[in-house]
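Input chain follows. Return structure tokens only.
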Amino acid sequence: MKLAILVAALLPSALLGCSHKGAGGSSRVPVTVAHAERRAVPFEIPATGTAEPVQTVSVQAQVTGVLTHVTFHEGDDVTAGQVLFEIDPRPFRAALEQARAVLARDQAQQQAAELDAQRYAELVKRDYVTKSDYDAKRAAADALQATLRADSAAVANAALNLEWATIRAPIAGRTGRLLVREGNLVRANSPDPLRRNRLPVFVTPSKSDTVFTEGALSFVDNSVDTTTGTVLLKAEFPNRDNALWPGEFLTVRLQLYVEDSAVVVPSQAVMNGQQGTYLFVVNQDGTARSQSVTVERTAGAYTVIAQGVRAGDDVVTDGQLRLVSGAAVEVKGVADAARELGGDK
């Protein structure tokens, strides 16, 4: 009997509690919103790449000799025509003087032979000498003329060898590792490396870095690599601050064009559900509604919306996991949408 009375006494109290919660209504969900807006949005293709120098030159000795001077340090920046090495020039200078002496001797002999030939040309007209005598003198003069041409080539070759004893930078750039030292005997064709390292292209050494180096597309290959399914593209960068190094792996963005007036929302506002892509829009009466959207693409921290949202709509960027369509919301903040698309360039 007491148990029945106790149960009867508890029921009104429980009903009263339920009635009170219904009268009070559900609490508002705190959310952060951002404004959908129109922006100029670049259309970019992300990729990975490798830095390589525009020109790579192996500086080689064209003559054999003892290295007497190295005029730079490893890693120095050099200009085109700058002296890098000097090989002992004395043997080449002596060879040049010898070639010049041979040329002078043969010039004297050729001049004498030419005078003889001219004299015999007059004598043969008067029948003082035979035609065969004249022909012999003429042949001797012509042979010495050919010898002069050979001597002149020998002088030029000796002068070139002397010039090659001074090795200059063929291009401007940064020197690599030094393979020879002063006092070494260097041989012809002994290499020493000298490295130098339109659509906009932006690169950065890492995905997290927001500082990009800007260059321009310079080459598109005409075939697909069958092993990787990719197409090779190349871009050139001024690299005045030496931020890029040969062989370095890079994060690359190729900008194809800029869409002048695209509707964008922060990417964290967009969600995927069983019915497709959607987000929550805050109505003027303080409630939220689930809105299906058509995503065109992403651009940095933003998503470009093709359909479903208009510029000026308030979209939920934080707190949407607790929302259902029609739920009352309390806007606790507005997300900062002032960042540049894709980060600072």
